[in-house]
Amino acid sequence: MAGMMKAAVYRDVDMVVCEEIPVPEIGAGEVLVRIDTCGVCGTDLKKIHTGSHAAPRVFGHEMAGTIAAIGVDVKGFSIGERVMAFHHIPCGVCFYCKKQTFAQCETYKKVGTTAGFEAAGGGFAEYIRVMDWIVAKGLVKVPDDIPFEQAAFIEPVNTCYKAIRMLNLEADDTVLVIGQGSIGVILAALAKRTGATVLTSDLYAERHKVAAGFGLDRPIDARGDVVAEAKKATSSRGVDVVLVAVGADSLITQAMDAVRAGGRVMLFASTQHGTAAYDPTAVCMDEKTLMGSYSASVAIQDEGVELVFQGFRDGSLDLTKLISHRFGLEDCAEAVRLASNPEPGSMKIVFKP
After folding, report:
1. Enoyl reductase (ER) domain location, by residue (predicted)?
2. What is the CATH number of the domain that holds 287?
3. Which residues contact 177 (CB under 8 A, 6 or more apart)?
4. In 10 A of CB 322, how many CB atoms?
5. Distances (CA, A) of 125 to 117, 165, 294
6. Do both 131 and 54 map to the same domain?
7. Phi and psi torsions of 80, nearest 5°
8. Which of 193, 227, 251, 332 is 20 to 30 A from 173 (CA-CA)?
């Protein structure tokens, strides 16, 4: 499919510009998808602001749209079908895949969707090329009754569901989720589905109001003493689990102070190198566990997809309610600015190419 398309192109640190670039060409086993919705993820912003990836590139990986063209040898898909695409899929046979630590697989670390230039996701564009190994295992059909804006959350929900599954929460657990941006709300909502008591902390009352729509009714004002509130809710013990959904190293100390002896702190947004101060005796003598969860898991892919679809159908996980701002590609600079500098009324930022 020849022609030109709009794309939000990363050109330099802190610089994303709307440009006309060629529609990507597809090869055998590949699919071209017309993007309807693509969310802006914190990892996209990290790459834009740190220069960790060489320019030019087109980022964006929380995406859904319609198949516009298919290559030879593609089976099971046809033009006009509604889909979402994962951008990472592991090999399934290496050491890390056998240990189900998929995000450490070398094949997983390759990006299998692109709008052009070096593969970087590509969802911040009108079209993406989906490579053959993604078509085989990471291209998901979206039913007609599921909006693209809901389907675009399939990848981030998978990452959150992976973290919750790792924790094996029980009904008598009390969980604190630090941060109530869109990821924090998803983590908290999934934690609550296990039967656990869930506390949430954030600076903005507006975000707590959005969270309340997902049944999260134990808000803590992050401008106050979060640790004291966590202990007040747990007979002074501290909570069983803390999920840190904000990439601020200073909050790791808060999390370690808020969790009980023998409890667990999971880092979910610490994707930039840094240094965090915490008392090592908290790990050794108090037997607190500091752990992390990163990216998606193919082991729960089908379960996560069904969670997103059924959650929309029954209203229990209507993620379109998390979207606060929708931008065209021509307004990419403002979209990146707002996503990078959250305001009281901002939540999930998406592109509508």
Report:
1. 11-351
2. 3.40.50.720
3. 184, 187, 188, 191, 198, 199, 200, 201, 242, 243, 245
4. 23
5. 12, 33, 25
6. yes
7. 95, -10
8. 251
> What's the CATH number where 54 sits?
3.90.180.10
Q: Is the peptide bond before 56 cis (omega within 30 degrees of 0)?
A: yes
d(CA 214, CA 241): 20
Distances (CA, A) of 304 to 291, 310, 317: 22, 10, 12
Q: Same domain for 287 and 328?
A: no
User: Is 333 exposed, middle or buried, given 0-12, 13-18 or 19+ CB atoms closer than 10 A?
Assistant: middle
pLDDT tens column, 86-98: 999 999 999 999 9
Give the residue among 45, 116, 94 at the shortest CA–CA distance from 298: 94
- CB burial of 278-316 (b: ≥16 within 10 Å; e: otherwise) equals beeebeeeeebebeebbbbbbebbeebbebbbebbeeee
Smallest Cα–Cα separation from 44: which of 53, 35, 36?
53
Q: How far apart are CA 330 and CA 333, in angstroms?
A: 8
Q: Containing domain of residue 63, as a range? A: 4-152+318-351
Q: What's the total number of domains in the chain?
A: 2
pTM equals: 0.97
**pLDDT per residue as tens digits for the range 183-237:** 999 999 999 999 999 999 999 999 999 999 999 999 999 999 999 999 999 999 9
Burial of residue 133, with CB atoms counted within 10 A of its CB: 0-12 exposed, 13-18 middle, 19 or more buried = middle
Q: How far is CA 181 from CA 102, 184, 185, 331, in A?
A: 26, 5, 6, 22
